[in-house]
Specification:
Immunoglobulin-like, about 30% strand, Actin-crosslinking, alpha+beta, Rossmann fold, beta-glucosidase activity, Trefoil (Acidic Fibroblast Growth Factor, subunit A), about 950 residues, Exo-alpha-(1->6)-L-arabinopyranosidase, globular
Length: about 950
């Protein structure tokens, strides 16, 4: 008898078109199975041989949260390299490690939630470390390079499937799930959408993740922009994955919908395909989808469309073609090549801000004093992997210059905590120190983390222990034992010296000293992670809800004393300060100021006073404002990953000439900043594009140990755009990189345009005396702006400047070109009316949702008074009536050219915010005029029309 063979189902046949394979598999899934696929953790379907699948693997600058992996510089540091080729290679390395790690641990996912393409609009945004730049062109260039590396170059199969974060206009952590970003159409299209659009159009993106916030009054998870814009940019199926907990926020915190069934249905219909909610428990989402189906809020077609997009990604990842997947057997992990790449990236990310009197690079025989809180640290952030290797600046300098030529003072305050009973807090000896629990490769033992309970709690005795106290700003403190362990609090409430460094979603290593009014010199010590105060009990030091201990701070040594001691004996002092990525600026927490913490400013002042040959080295995720007037040298680097120290030492020694460039403006003071929630970069003159003040350091700034000459600027106009060519020559005495930057500027624009706008750049390596011709391509679309009157991009005819230089403010060559285009035309308001949000200018208003599913309206801020201005409105031969579509209550006043009020339209309460009514009034208007509308009260204006 001949054995029968089961025919291979069409979805397993790689010879068939992808769409047919998806159709076949989708048709084999039951409704229950398809609904289950909508949760982040999709279950296996054993009868079809489908494995479980989860969306989401963090890989911002290396594989995160899955154990040891190569750790590259923070994303903002990668942005500072201005080097797409380098970033593409990093993406390749990261995705290769993801594949290798997945081969031994199926918890590692291939749907990668990275990179973050939110623009670094505001330097106080807590998650600025995750983005690349304040400029949409640079951001999209770096993001495209990273996604291409993550995707791989096979024509069919993807190494990983990258998802861009966070759609859209997301730059604040403060109340991030309830605040609304008011984004006028020009800002939306020219700024916030642009970084996403150009990256998606490049073809290596699998999807996006909506952000927690609302845009124009509507949560991003039900945004019509997903369908209206995102999915029109590519023919590929794009997977939209919700952010964690955001589907529930639609009801629980945002109160946008009354029920979770309504919210889930609205998100699914808007385009969300995978719901990240309630951790691994999919039952809530399944229940909500079922409820929405039963209530008629969803159709099975809605579900099928979402599952189809998810299956498309799984097919592209080769899941159903294991024999054909070229990445299935990836084994490269922590290779010498990956280690070298991490060092190269850290070197290229260093930005030399200032260098007078030849202080840098350091001569071989220089006696160096290294001081500062970041000098012997290799800091990680929330999206870092676990270090396999580590290199601090101090270790790098020891290695490069020799320990005998390097002296060190951390500069921390040494204190003891005396109790009200006269005893002192004491740290028991640990069985192992942080250095002892590192393996041969430097990887941390996972046990040495906050939450470790096998160590004894702190106690009190007659002498106590000197603790290192650091104030990171705003009174946020860390306390550290002499062996380097940070004081931390575990679930049992005991205080232990148990953490290698601050970390975790809720940081358990930060405290605050609060003066006790009834006890002179006494303080309460508040633990910020739990909100409770430290107390002393018979069984050790704890945090508790009652009986807080009153401590007296006994200072053994101020940090600046140790700095002064070593600084005066050195040829050069390196002050290495900055931020801890888990404190005062991170996901869930915005910064409050650009200033360095007072503790660090004290150290810098002490070093300057002791030795004028002082260089400031800022190791930080963010810009700072510092007084650099009497500093001969300063440089900045983001937290540089596993090779940070080695890379920094090589730059300081001159083995590598620095060529990093600032990816965002460094402002001179907090007074230069707009409000954190003011997303109107045009109206409030934000970023280098519009800022009219004098920055501390401008966008694109960065010095070199070499010098470069720019000559022979020319251009050639083609059908596709401009080819701009110039000669770049290294006129210095060492091989170095230069980053020539091309900016464009409209000379006489009819609307506010950027002061200058990055159009192209390139990182170039040149030997001494070596010239090269650099050609940069500029598409003609670069010169267009969003015409609110015509609701599309338009290029104006006229003169445009081409500006070539070393930064946005260091322009070396320029020329002017005349381009043709489409002349401006008056708005035909008699025929088409005015959409309220399509204003040319405004004061005191914000954009809100016209309905819960589509459209915009405008309302006065806080129900007060606002004004809208619409230029060049053409009333033709004349109109006799103005109508407004509005909801709420208040009045709309109509005038022309800033003249007298011609019509007042009073609006009685209409009920809810989406209950619109139409009001009309008689006017006389003909020809072309500017329309002024004054809005009074808590009304929403959607449209203005004209007739007669």
């Amino acid at each position: 008898m001949t054995a029968q063979t089961t025919p291979t189902p069409p979805f397993r046949d790689p010879q068939l078109p992808l769409a047919k394979r998806i159709d076949d598999l989708l048709g084999r899934l039951t409704l229950d199975e398809r609904i289950a696929f909508l949760h982040q953790f999709s279950p296996a379907v054993d009868r079809l041989g489908l494995a479980a699948f989860r969306t989401g693997q963090e890989a911002l600058h290396g594989v995160a949260w899955m154990g040891p992996a190569t750790v590259f510089p923070q994303a903002v540091g990668l942005g500072a390299t201005w080097n797409e080729d380098l970033v593409r290679r990093i993406g390749e390395a990261v995705s290769t490690e993801i594949r290798a790690m997945r081969a031994r641990d199926d918890r590692v996912g291939l749907n990668v939630w990275s990179p973050t393409v939110n623009l670094l609009r505001h330097p106080l945004w807590g998650r600025g470390e995750e983005g690349y730049s304040e400029d949409p062109k640079l951001t999209s260039a770096i993001a495209t390079a990273y996604t291409r590396g993550l995707r791989g170059d096979h024509p069919t199969y993807w190494r990983t499937a990258p998802v861009l974060k966070h759609w859209l206009a997301h730059n604040n952590e403060t109340n991030r799930d309830t605040t609304s970003s008011s984004v006028r159409p020009r800002v939306l299209h020219e700024y916030d959408l642009r970084a996403f659009r150009e990256t998606v159009q490049a073809g290596a993106v699998a999807g996006v993740m909506p952000a927690y916030n609302l845009v124009n009054g509507r949560p991003n998870h039900v945004s019509p922009y997903l369908a209206e814009h995102l999915r029109t940019w590519t023919d590929e199926d794009l997977l939209v994955c919700s952010d964690a907990g955001a589907p529930s926020n639609l009801v629980d915190s945002e109160h946008y919908f009354d029920t979770h069934e309504e919210a889930t249905a609205a998100a699914l219909r808007a385009g969300v395909d995978s719901f990240t909610d309630h951790g691994t428990d999919s039952s809530k989402i399944v229940e909500r989808v079922r409820g929405a189906l039963d209530r008629g809020l969803l159709s099975t077609d809605d579900i099928d469309e979402a599952v189809r997009r998810q299956l498309s990604v799984r097919f592209r990842l080769g899941e159903f073609d294991p024999g054909a997947d070229p990445y299935a057997d990836a084994k490269d992990f922590d290779t010498p090549g990956h280690r070298a790449l991490a060092q190269e990236a850290a070197e290229q990310a260093v930005v030399l801000l200032k260098n007078e009197n030849g202080l840098l690079p350091l001569a071989e025989d220089t006696r160096v004093a290294v001081v500062g809180l970041l000098a012997d640290e290799c800091k990680l952030d929330w999206y870092s992997g676990t270090l396999i290797h580590r290199s601090t600046p101090l270790e790098g300098l020891y290695e490069r210059f020799g320990a005998e030529r390097v002296t060190f003072a951390e500069g921390v305050d040494r204190v003891r905590l005396r109790t009200s009973a006269g005893t002192y807090v004491s740290v028991p000896e640990a069985a192992s120190s942080p250095d002892e629990v590192r393996g041969a490769e430097g990887a941390l033992d996972p046990a040495l983390l906050a939450g470790r309970t096998d160590l004894p709690p702190l106690t009190t005795d007659a002498t106590g222990t000197d603790l290192a106290l650091v104030d990171w700003g705003d009174g946020v403190l860390t306390l550290r034992a002499p062996d380097g362990r940070y004081l931390s609090v575990a679930e049992d409430g005991c205080v232990r010296a148990s953490a290698d460094q601050p970390g975790g979603w809720v940081v358990q290593e930060t405290f605050r000293l609060e003066r006790h009014e009834s006890h002179e010199g006494g303080h309460l010590l508040k633990h910020l992670g739990t909100g409770r105060y430290v107390s002393v009990a018979t069984d050790g030091v704890k945090v508790a809800d009652e009986n807080p201990e009153i401590f007296t701070l006994v200072v053994s040594e101020r940090g600046e004393e140790s700095v002064t001691r070593v600084a005066g004996q050195a040829d050069v002092v390196l002050v290495i300060v900055g931020n801890d990525p888990h404190i005062n600026g991170r996901e869930t927490e915005d910064r409050t100021t650009l200033r360095l913490p007072e503790h660090q400013e004290r150290l810098l002042r002490a070093a300057r006073a002791a030795n004028p040959r002082t260089a400031l080295i800022l190791t930080s995720a963010y810009p700072y404002t510092v007084d650099s007037a009497d500093l001969p040298a300063a440089l900045w680097t983001a937290h540089g990953g596993q090779a940070a120290g080695t890379a920094l030492a090589r730059v300081l020694a001159g083995d590598v000439s620095p060529a990093g460039r600032l990816p965002q403006t460094w402002y001179a003071s907090d007074a230069d900043l707009p409000g954190l929630l003011d997303y109107d970069v045009i109206g409030s003159r934000q970023t280098y594009l519009y800022f009219e003040g004098t920055p501390l350091f401008p966008f694109g700034h960065g010095l070199s140990y070499a010098t470069f000459a720019y000559e022979n600027l020319s251009y050639r106009l083609t059908d596709e755009g401009l080819k701009v060519t110039f000669t770049l020559t290294n006129t210095g005495d060492r091989t170095a990189d230069e980053v020539p930057q091309l900016y464009v500027r409209a000379v006489s624009p009819s609307v506010p345009r950027p002061r200058r706008e990055l159009a192209a750049h390139r990182r170039v390596t040149l030997a001494p005396g070596s010239p090269t011709d650099v050609t940069l391509d500029v598409p003609l679309s670069t010169f267009a702006f969003w015409d609110v009157a015509q609701n599309r991009h338009r290029r104006e005819p006229g003169a445009y400047e081409l500006l070539v230089g070393a930064s946005s403010e260091d322009i070396r060559l320029s020329t002017t070109i005349d381009l043709d285009g489409e002349p401006a035309a008056p708005r035909p308001v008699r025929e088409h009316g005015l959409d309220a949000a399509a204003f040319d200018d405004q004061r005191g208003t914000e954009i809100v949702d016209r309905t819960k599913t589509s459209g915009d309206a405008v309302t006065p801020v806080d129900g007060g008074t606002g004004e809208l201005l619409f230029h060049d409105c053409d009333f033709g031969d004349g109109v006799a009536e103005v109508t407004v579509e509005a909801s709420g209550e208040g009045t709309v006043e109509f005038s022309l050219n800033g003249g007298p009020v011609l019509a007042v339209l009073p609006l009685s309460a209409t009920g809810g915010p989406y209950d619109y009514t139409t009001l009309s009034a008689g006017i006389v208007a003909a020809g072309v005029h500017d329309v002024h509308l004054k809005l009074r009260g808590p009304l929403r204006l959607a449209r203005v029309g004209f007739s007669g």
